[in-house]
Amino acid sequence: MLVVRLVIIGNGVAGMEAALLVRNREPSWEITLVSEESDHFFSRTALMWVFSGQMSHQDIEPLERDAYERLALRRVRARALGIDPAKREIRLAGGLPSISYDRLLIACGSRPRPGPWPGSDLRGVGHFVTLQDLAWYEAEVHGGAGRGGQPPRADAHLSASALDSPYRFREQAALSRGTLARHPAVIGGGLIGIEAVEVAVAAGLRPHFFIREEWFWPIALEPREAKWISERMSEHGVQVHLDHRVEALEADGDGNLAGVRTDRGLFDADCAVVAIGVVPNTEWLQGSDIELDASGGILVDGSLQTSAADVFAAGDCASVAWFDGTTRPEQLWYTARDQGRIAGRRLLGDRVRYERGLWYNSAKLMD
Questions:
Q1: For residue 265, is pLDDT > 80?
Q2: Is-contact 44 333, C-beta < 8 A?
Q3: What pTM was computed for the model?
Q4: Is 114 exposed, middle or buried (0-12, 13-18, 19+ CB in 10 A)?
Q5: What is the 3-state composition of the chain as percent helix, strand, coil, each rounded to the nearest 5?
Q6: What separation in angstroms does the CA of 145 have from each of 12, 70, 154, 265?
């Protein structure tokens, strides 16, 4: 009996959908999941419900916590540093031994796009994408974990020292100042931005919301819809600033965030969430002979095969063909789920292609 060594980089929705599909058909395969961010598969789109206390960390985990053991899925909590397709090996950080594979799925997701302005690295500036971002934002606003409780393995010791890791823990301005954030700012007008705004409102705060465009979320909404949403946000206490271009994040004398400067003036802020999009989390693949496009996405064919033999990619990190003939990542939970299912079948040897259906998203915001 042939035992195939399958390795999956990432235990998000794309990686887990593939792992579950393969395990269902091949009970003897050795399946290893490598994840730096978390021990457990969780729904990234539900972080806001944990922050606001409407759900616990375990509530947003689609699988039982014994699922890895029960399904014989080996879990490695580590940071991948590179791939050698010739040797079929994955290098890991922290002095851990390399992992050999027969077939490989890269489902390493995306990372927050960093702020391009002076002061973007100040204490009190962060994002709202990862579990570590959630812990940071809760610490700034609540002084620690919110009503959703502590995340599992919140120490993240494997990545805490990696300054370029999206899963590092950030220094807290609230701890440095000795006071909690009471004047938060959110920069960027997409779904992550409005989620970061909503959890601040749920904490009883009146956040600044800086949006570069003339109306909220123009890639998805037309002006009348966006105007209605902006008015509702204002009714909830959000200070909506449309057509503002951030120029710098200002510091106090101790290196903590003190304000956001735009082309319209200076606004007091003691905490800022930068929500200007995400980019493929693929910097670690530079020099690995895995072909990337200009966005950093992993180039794949219609069956999600990469430029390397027996290596596939799915989810936010994969650049796929769009309806307009361009090739770029699809950074949605639903498309990552669908790509993971196709990748799982490809790993099993099925002849299938990824055909995206109607593009959609859903969100419940405020009222």
A1: yes
A2: yes
A3: 0.93
A4: middle
A5: 25, 25, 50
A6: 22, 30, 10, 33
